[in-house]
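Q: Given only this backbone (214 positions), what sequence would you predict?
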């Protein structure tokens, strides 16, 4: 079955919380969400100011070249901060990671189709496709709201709020982009210097991505 990658000639549905979010049918999307204490406040405020100025001067949706520039200047530094392990890193506890993964898998192949995901100590990366009639913000609300309630009820973390309210998402443009994202999620624990047991990785058994040589 052919993957419905992002098509700039077709309509895109947009929603907004603190950040704009984009969805185009079953187009695969990379989603990142994180714990509420995962980025120092002063770093986050400066990042928001600078990335906000970029977005104000570059209205979305973006051409591929503008999107690439944004992610080089803002997404990659942000991800390096996450990988540095700031905050309580509650999901380093395997019991907490299992709760988070369980919510991701709960409606898999019913409301959406997971391709792969990794639960890191203080953030989560997911590659997923929505099914017909499903909205990404509603799915995220379920993943985050139910998991935080279960974690607090079980006494596994005192972090409150558990999750940062918003999330990042990025539509997948083509097969090369798909492979790059899938491989990034696979390798994120190694890039962050984590040991076995400090993260939880899942991949659809039939998922395929061309391994790059880096």
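A: Predicted residues:
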């Amino acid at each position: 079955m052919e993957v419905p990658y992002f098509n700039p000639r077709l309509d895109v549905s947009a929603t907004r919380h603190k950040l704009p979010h984009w969805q185009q049918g079953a187009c695969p999307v990379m989603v990142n969400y994180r714990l509420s204490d995962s980025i120092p406040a002063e770093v986050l405020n400066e990042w928001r100011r600078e990335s906000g100025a970029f977005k104000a001067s570059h209205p979305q949706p973006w051409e591929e070249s503008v999107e690439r520039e944004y992610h080089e200047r803002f997404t990659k530094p942000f991800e390096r901060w996450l990988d540095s392990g700031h905050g309580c890193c509650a999901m380093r506890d395997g019991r907490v990671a299992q709760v988070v993964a369980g919510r991701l898998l709960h409606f898999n192949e019913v409301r959406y189709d997971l391709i792969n995901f990794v639960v890191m100590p203080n953030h989560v990366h997911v590659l997923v496709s929505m099914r017909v009639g499903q909205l990404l913000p509603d799915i995220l609300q379920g993943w985050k709201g139910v998991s935080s309630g279960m974690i607090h009820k079980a006494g596994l973390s005192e972090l409150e709020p558990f999750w940062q309210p918003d999330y990042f998402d990025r539509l997948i443009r083509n097969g090369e982009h798909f492979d790059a994202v899938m491989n990034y999620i696979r390798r994120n624990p190694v890039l962050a210097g984590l040991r076995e047991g400090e993260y939880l990785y899942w991949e659809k058994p039939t998922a395929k991505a061309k391994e790059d040589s880096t």
